[in-house]
TrEMBL record:
InterPro entries linked to this entry: DPS_DNA-bd, Ferritin-like, Ferritin-like_SF, Ferritin_DPS_dom
Keywords for the protein's UniProt record, in alphabetical order: DNA-binding
Residues annotated as signal peptide: none
Domain of life: Bacteria
Domain Ferritin/DPS, chain residue ranges per copy: 26-163
One GO molecular-function entry: ferric iron binding
Protein name in UniProt: Starvation-inducible DNA-binding protein
SUPFAM superfamilies, per database record: Ferritin-like
Length: 168
């Protein structure tokens, strides 16, 4: 093993500086953990949705969960392309995730949507922070990947916000 914890056989060559690579990998691994946690939270609320808008909310959360899940593999593979290790277990996710779990027996539909809106807002911020780390490391590929995901995350925030607004 190398001193920086990379296994030589997994050390994919890159022209980026090692220090920058490590910072990018750390930031992106946090996003991978958050995406797993947000996916589970979104599916939790999807499965436990109730009330008069059940169908609309159920479908919205299913669509959003699918979108979140679709980000996980490209983000984790980006870390591997940099020659770094990525998430290895549920325990590893739990160590890195910033998304708060919700294990309540019942959550009101509006509270679910507001919770997810706030978690997605935090996710967008974390992505922008990771984008800055990638920019500082001159890692255009990671920055460009994140730009699409930031836009998708902001769209989820927008839909959740509009869904929770009171009708006049």
């Amino acid at each position: 093993m190398k001193a920086d914890n990379r296994v030589d056989v997994l050390d994919t060559p890159s022209d980026l500086k090692d220090k920058g690579i490590q910072k990018v990998a750390e930031a992106v691994n946090g996003l991978v953990a958050d995406a797993f946690a947000l996916y589970i939270k979104t599916k939790n609320f999807h499965w436990h949705m109730s009330g008069r808008h059940f169908r609309d909310y159920h479908l919205l959360l299913d669509e959003q969960a699918d979108q979140i899940f679709a980000t996980i593999d490209p983000l984790a593979e980006r870390v591997r392309k940099l020659g770094e290790n990525t998430i290895r277990s549920v325990a590893h996710i739990a160590q890195l995730q910033r998304v708060k779990d919700n294990d309540e027996d019942f959550v009101a539909p509006k509270d679910m949507l507001v919770d997810l809106m706030n978690e997605n807002k935090k996710m967008a911020k974390a992505m922008r922070d990771a984008h800055k780390v990638a920019d500082d490391a001159e890692d255009v590929a990671t920055a460009s990947l994140l730009e699409v995901y930031i836009d998708e995350t902001e769209r989820r925030v927008w839909f959740l916000f509009e869904t929770t607004r009171e009708l006049n």
